[in-house]
Structure formats: C-alpha cells, structure tokens
UniProtKB/TrEMBL annotation:
UniProt keyword terms in alphabetical order: Glycosidase, Hydrolase
Name the record gives this protein: Mannosylglycerate hydrolase MGH1-like glycoside hydrolase domain-containing protein
Gene3D superfamilies: 1.50.10.10
Organism, scientific name: Candidatus Chloroploca asiatica
Stretches assigned to the Mannosylglycerate hydrolase MGH1-like glycoside hydrolase domain: 256-572
GO biological process, one term: protein N-linked glycosylation
Amino acid sequence: MYVPASPYLLALENRIRLQKIPFSDRGSRLLIYQERRVADTLYLKLAERLTALTPGLSSYRARPPFISNLRLVDAEGRTVRFEVTTYPHALVFQTPIGEFRLVFQDHQTVSFGLPNGIASGIRFTVSPDLARPDAYGGEFKTVRNCAYSTNGELVLNQVEHNGSGYDVILTARGDADTAITLHIQPGMELDRTVVPFRTALAAAESRWHRWFDAVPSVDEPYRSQYYYAWWVLGNNILAPYGYFRRESVAPSKAHYVGAWQWDNYFHALAFRYTDPRLASDQIQFMLDHQLPDGMIPDAVYDEGTITQLEVPVAAAVTKPPIAAWVAMLVYAQTGDMAMLREIYDPLVRWNSWWFGLNDDDADGIVQYSHPFSSGLDDSPLWDYGMPVEAVDLNTYLCLQMEALGKMARLLGRNREAELWKHRSAALAHRMIEHFYDAQRGLFWSHHHHQPIQVMTPFSLYPLWTGQMSPAINERLVAHLRDVGTFWTPHPLPTVAISDPHFNPNQMWRGPVWININYIFVEALQRTGYRDLAQTLAERTLRLVMGQSDIYEYYHPLTGEPPPKAAPMFGWSASCYIDLAIRMSRGEI
C-alpha cells in the first residue's frame, strides 16, 4: 500500500472526509466527493458559479455534479468495491483487484493511477452537448470541456447514450506509470498530456510537503488542527481566471464559490507568516475591482462582481472596512512597503466612499444601507429596518483611519498621518456621544436615531479602538465576561444568551464566529486585559480543536457545528493559525 514519506501528509491521513469535504488542490476548481448513498461511487463538482448556465448568485449550490457515477472498474468495466484513504495530496483506493490512486496532475487535471500489471480503469456519467471518442480516450464539449485520456494500452473505450447524457467506460493495461486523466477547462483546446503517474504522484507529494514545511512551528497541543488549517487554506485557493486577476482564497470551495472581501482580509492574516505575496494579493485582489466612486465590491467570482443586491433591501453592497488594519498587520510581519504604496490611495478613496455616501443625515456617524455590507447577514440588528448607524461599522472606521495614519507616516506623508490620527480620535469621541448608554454600560446601534436594544458583542466593539476611557472599558469588559450574556461555555455568542433574539444554531443570531473572537482578543490585548485575552484565545483554539473539521461557526453552549455551518472554512482556519502561532510565541 502506498504511504507518503512526508510526516505532514501522514499526520493528516483521513482528515479529508470525502462525503462532506472535497478533495481538491491549490488553484483548482475541481472538487472530488464520495457519494453518501451509493456505495463505491465518486462524483466531481465545479467550484464555479456559471451564472449563464444556472442564473442566480447561489444556484451553483444546487447544481448537479459535472461528472457523476464515477467508479473504479476492472478490465470489462465492472465496478469494484473500494476503501479509500485520504491525504492532502492523494486519494488511495484499496480494491479486490489492486490499488488505485488519484492526484491532481495540475489544477485542471485529475489523474488516476491504475493497479500495476492488470487492465482496469474508470467509468462515469456526463451530460455534454457533443461526445467524441478517440484512440486515447475521448472529449466532451459542454459549458466546461472535458478530455479523458490514458497513456496505457487501451483495452475498452465505450460511450453509450443514456437518454440525458453519456455513460463512459475507459480501461487500460500498463505499469506503475499508467494513468487515466480527466482534464476539465473552459477553453476549446484541451490538454491531452498524461504525465507518468509516478511523476504526478511525486510532484503532488512534493508541493504539499513544501506547503506545510514553510509554516512556523507551534506548540504541540495546537499542532494537529494547525496543519489541517493550513490544508484548508491551500485547498481553498482559486487560480486566476476571468475576474480573478490573481490567486484568491474562497471561504469554502464546498459552499462559497468566489472571493468575499471580508474573508480575503482575514485570510491574509495567516499568509503573512509564509508568503508575503499571497498575503498582499488577498488585499489587492479586492482593490483590483474598486469602483470609480471608491466602493469595493462585496464579492468577486469568475464571471463578475457583486456590488448591488435587491433583497432584503435594494442597495449597494460591500463589506466592513478592515483592509487597512489587516494591511498593517501584514506589513508588521513582512515589511512590504511596495504593498503599502499600492494600496494607500485606493483605501483613502474607500474611506471617502463610506463617509461621503453612507451618512444620510450628515451627522458624522456612518450607516449600513444593506445588511449584507456588515458581514453579519441575518443579525437581529437589522430586524427593525435599514439603514442602520452601526457601532461595529464606526469602530472599523476608527481602526481604518488609525491604520491609514500609520501607512501615511511610513510613506512620508506626515501631514496626512496627523489628519488621520485626528479623524480617528474624533470619530471615537462622536461614537460615545451618539451610541453610548451610560446606564447600561454599552453601545447601541441606531435606526432612525432610535437605539436598537439587541444585545450583541458588537455593542462592546469600541473597546477595540483603544480610545475609550478606562471606566467605559471596564463596563464593556464586565459584559464580555458575564456568564449570563457572553461568557458561555464556548465564548463569544454573536447574540447574548439572555437576549430574546438568541438562537444558537442560526448564523449571526447566536453562534460563535472565530473571526469575532479574534477581534476581541486583539481588543483585550490593546486595552491591557492580557489575562482575559489569553483565556479567550485559548478557549477559541480549544473550540476549533474540538472538531475534526474547521467550521464557519459553532454552537456557544455545546461547541458543535450547527447544521448549516459550512465546513473547511477559510477565515476560521486563518484566525486559528494566527492565534496558535502567537500563543506559542508568547505574544498574547
């Protein structure tokens, strides 16, 4: 049986559970799953929206597989049973006729290694517009074109129309280098190259070993989930294509296809330790699509951008302004002055967009006009109507202007640096005047100048500015560590457990989000609550370590992932990585 030499790959044996977690590769839009209800069967989905084929921004989630009924077969095309072992770089199938293996030859090509010395192969179902068998396998023409090929001695090449598509069987005889490939891409010129399988396998093992070998070491208790978190990020990378002008990380190839602004910035936190270019690309990727008025899109996918939504209200849609804050964290690790020079002016324009076009009453307090611009899509903060003058948004803008001031100073723009420092302080003061409830000791967002008295951790966000008085900070922290509100068995719920809106299973109405915990670790550190910051960081790490996979959000009482929480989630992985590194180094 094949066993990889790399200790990193061995350590992650069977962590990829193919019935829920797809096998993919850096840059690839091809996802390999195992059927839940049909034995010994795989399928291949596309991490693409293809809105021309299936209109609607989320229709890709319900789209059927591009290749279905994918099975391993003997020389006559009969399905063979298998037991699969998963690694980051390979799938290994034990069958009664020998061992099959699967790797990515490149980001558009999967390669099946066949058992040595016998005839065997694969069968699958596909629904193209045109099928064309040939001497090496065949081609299909459809919304994405596919070539299936072998470098072995062809034994059986059968294509049968099944009414709605085609059933294909391809078997070949050869040696340890014999392979069958599936090459899938949008272009008409299909690459029929079949790399000898041992070469493809060695290359896959080498590139994933290098990926893990480049990461900083962490303390042993964090290590297993730490390397899995790095796999999540690497596996979620999408290669440049269409509107993707550089590599970007999908939040979860399994559930969120494209690049989201908020997510990209959080992903950069991990890459700053291993790949300065990839870290800066996550920020600059979104700036590539900045609108003339300064707005940055909510999300980008292969065929376009998302800048306007009609539900639940019709409004422009973006995401919270944290790019400058993240960029300064990246710079602190990498010293990348070129990145700062490229992003400073676009971020200044973005800041102007917020203040110029999102303050309907011109009171200096900025609003969300669309709930999705907050990133907190279904939070009860939006139940009472839009727009909302939001505590979290104005906190982000305080941090953004502070970060812009630091950038300006580094770039020699000292007068601008002083201006940003003044504007950040002025907004912090204005937030106290506008939002602070001295009786309750927290900040309320407003709709039509009426406080929205829904208790969420975002009412405590101004702690993060570092510009509140010690007395206000103490009131905010008292709420944070109250076991009757936010200090649950797994803190911090996104709605207080004492609030009637609390629902521990519904997205932003109660579950714990790792990025929000990360922000509060930062806030507590900044304001001198180091012991509490350490405790929150450790409990956040333990929460993520409590599950085999890394999820979008978690139940604050049980620590389990709620039913709709997406698996292999990028910013949870990235924040886990950053916290594990800094806890191991004693930086928290």
